[in-house]
Amino acid sequence: MDFTITAKHTTLTDAVRKHAMKKCEKFPHYYNSINKIEVIVDGKEGGQLSVEIIASAEHNRLFVATEKGDDLYKCIDLAAHKIERQISQRKEKERNDKKHADSGKQ
Fold this sequence. Notes:
The structure is a single chain. The chain is of the alpha+beta class. It contains 3 helices and 4 strands; from the N terminus they run βααβββα. A 4-stranded mixed β-sheet has the order 1-2-3-4, covered by helices on one side. Helix 1 runs parallel beside helix 3 (72-103).
């Protein structure tokens, strides 16, 4: 899995990098076809921060979450939680589609 973290208009500490990596390394456990994760941290004027997480999976599936706030760690946590929800919803949909496809065969 390829993991990239980028900062725009701000600097990142090693602790922030480790925190983002720790939160995002769980995604392949939920959906094993994820092959690339990008975390983009953007510092705006006035101290407003935004975090965008993009998880790419096979077959051009994208999971994107954006969170804005003052606390960088909280933004990373909330964006990661949004991605986890999107992944679980997608996985549930795929499971339901398989069940319906199998029930039609006899």
